[in-house]
């Protein structure tokens, strides 16, 4: 990596089903007309942005930017968080869902996103750290983690080769609706509170929105020192899921007797009676058959440019 600027932009050209590559010239022009140099490097494979961000942080970049979707944002954040140094984190949302950008009020317009990075101070936000299955060594997340129906939808949406944006998630939801997952038999500990339940859905939210349109954590705030654990408190049949799904669009699901929420300020342990839990963090697959995961709260773990 040849360093010619104090700003590094890690761009995923395959984000938004390959549409992100069309934004490269716009990003370069946005920095150029503001007389700001930037080093831009492309990713070519999954998890490469973690390595690039870690290298960039260790090489002394003051600002590291993720240009892509929520997966790219997650990887770059992980690279920064793995470093002993603490560069500020910027986001240019050019992906499919851009869910965390929605929560952080980061504009999807390239010019406005670059303006935000260059003209605003970075502010501390909280992050989560999940251990389990493919994340045995830990995987940070800044938006949220999901278990059950939510990752089912996410995995299906990611499999579509030519369908993008909210449409991919809606079609994936309709597909998964035809194959409702069986409830997991769960033992869950949220800080010092223990819960036993059968459920098909648990969301651990730092941000508010996932899946391009679903307000999974309607009360979540990215700098309040808490993770919102939002979950179905009993098994749900198809008709109930349909009714609840409509509430997720507006973020009113916690008004339903079928949903509950707890705040976690330290740790969440989730254990399933069988090794079958599907898990994602920030839309990135962690497992399709986990028996246990732990989520830890990392308060003020990352400095982000965002509209407060």
UniProtKB/TrEMBL annotation:
GO cellular component: plasma membrane
Signal sequence extent: none
Cofactor(s) recorded in Swiss-Prot or TrEMBL: Mg(2+)
Annotated DAGKc domain residues: 2-134
Alphabetized UniProt keyword annotations: ATP-binding, Kinase, Lipid biosynthesis, Lipid metabolism, Magnesium, Metal-binding, Nucleotide-binding, Phospholipid biosynthesis, Phospholipid metabolism, Transferase
SMART domains documented for this protein: DAGKc
GO biological process: phospholipid biosynthetic process
Single GO MF annotation: ATP binding
InterPro entries according to UniProt: ATP-NAD_kinase_N, Diacylglycerol/lipid_kinase, Diacylglycerol_kinase_cat_dom, Lipid_Phosphate_FormReg, NAD/diacylglycerol_kinase_sf, YegS/DAGK_C
Pfam family, one: YegS_C
NCBIfam families the UniProt entry points to: YegS/Rv2252/BmrU family lipid kinase (TIGR00147)
Alphabetized PANTHER family for the sequence: LIPID KINASE YEGS (PTHR12358:SF106), SPHINGOSINE KINASE (PTHR12358)
UniProt-recorded name of the protein: Diacylglycerol kinase family lipid kinase
